[in-house]
Amino acid sequence: MKTRAAVLWEAPGKWRVQEVELDEPKTGEVLVEMVATGLCHSDDHISHGDIPPEHLPVVAGHEGSGIVRKVGPGVTTLEVGDHVITSFIPGCGKCRWCAMGMQNLCDLGAKIMVGDQLDGTFRMHADGHDIATSALLGTFAEWQVYDELSLVKIDKDIPLEIACLVACGVQTGFGSAAYAGNVQPGDVVLVFGVGGVGMNAVQGARESGASHIIAIDPVANKQAWALDFGATESYGSLDEARDRLAALTNGQGADVVVLTASIVDNALVGGPLRRPQGRHARRHGRELGERGRADPRLQRELPRDDADPHPGCPVRHEVAPRGHAEPAEHVPRRQPQARRAHHAHLHPR
Ligand SMILES: NC(=O)c1ccc[n+]([C@@H]2O[C@H](COP(=O)([O-])OP(=O)(O)OC[C@H]3O[C@@H](n4cnc5c(N)ncnc54)[C@H](O)[C@@H]3O)[C@@H](O)[C@H]2O)c1
Ligand SMILES: [Zn+2]
Ligand SMILES: [Zn+2]
């Protein structure tokens, strides 16, 4: 079939919305009519070349939601009509890590930066080229074929255009504070960058009982929004917050620091920010990990990332779309899609 997708042909480069050929779902795969996708900063890193794609052209996007319209041979967990959100790490359910309840470390995660499907072939094609997808997903498309292992079925009463945010930003941010950072009641938490991930880290810290949540972001609107989401105070820079942090912690620094400020350098890491036994949780661009500009000891302080995609479902379903967290309020901009009118009758707001 033919569908439209936002394709990146070169990096750095711009997304080009164009018609592409989409294959039928193969064994273990399903065809999904997409309803919504978020734009994560990781997608921006791909188009800017901060995260060089393994294969070009590529359709990125990993924060999507939609409705299963067709199932391929051998699919056992999904059926036509199911509502799904994407998972940027597949969960095979069988490897050592999945068996231990850590599906965020599933062995199949080794494939998410490669670009092809699990069987090594591509489902999208244009102008004589195979088109890669990021994270085995590629949600920047109106229709897409996914492995069933990369999808999480959700209840049909959850609005799909809100649920898509849970596929990355909500669970990454919430999990960075609640799980990787292990925020405890009474902790002083510093969140650098309150965009898609950081705003949810604020909420994860709030739900974990932090006594003080200090948000730092140079954008004035985000400083204000952070207060609505549970930050107890917000500042435009570390320099503005430094005295206050010292006063709150007897000069010892925060208990937990969550870094989500996109490209992170040493100016944001370590030093007087946190107390000696404090915990770091970071969601970062490439610089911290791959260019080695940060203290490598930080790596050892991160026992787990994020929330497990499937066991994380209570977070996804109860805390976020229905509970105390506010993904619905967390959509800074909505871009109308060509197909919006078509979907309106499916998901009236
Ligand atoms: N699982 C993962 O590892 C994972 C998942 C999602 C995002 N990420 C990464 O996390 C980072 C954040 O993603 P996002 O979607 O939230 O991005 P975003 O653009 O929505 O948010 C980043 C925020 O950082 C702020 N900022 C910029 N410079 C700053 C500074 N010096 N101090 C404080 N704040 C600053 C920006 O104003 C913005 O609000 C990206 O690098 C992204 O690739 C990782
Ligand atoms: Zn993301
Ligand atoms: Zn697995």
TrEMBL record:
Domain Enoyl reductase (ER): 13-346
Cofactor(s) it depends on: Zn(2+)
Basic residues composition bias: residue spans: 276-285, 336-349
Keyword NAD assigned: yes
Entry GO MF terms: S-(hydroxymethyl)glutathione dehydrogenase [NAD(P)+] activity; zinc ion binding
One GO cellular component term noted in the UniProt record for this chain: cytosol
Alphabetical GO biological process terms: formaldehyde catabolic process
Segments of skewed composition (Basic and acidic residues): 286-332
Region (Disordered): 269-349
Keywords: Metal-binding, NAD, Oxidoreductase, Zinc
Family annotation (Pfam families): ADH_N, ADH_zinc_N
Domain of life per record: Bacteria
Family, per entry: Belongs to the zinc-containing alcohol dehydrogenase family.
Protein name as catalogued: Alcohol dehydrogenase catalytic domain-containing protein
Source organism of this protein record: Agromyces archimandritae
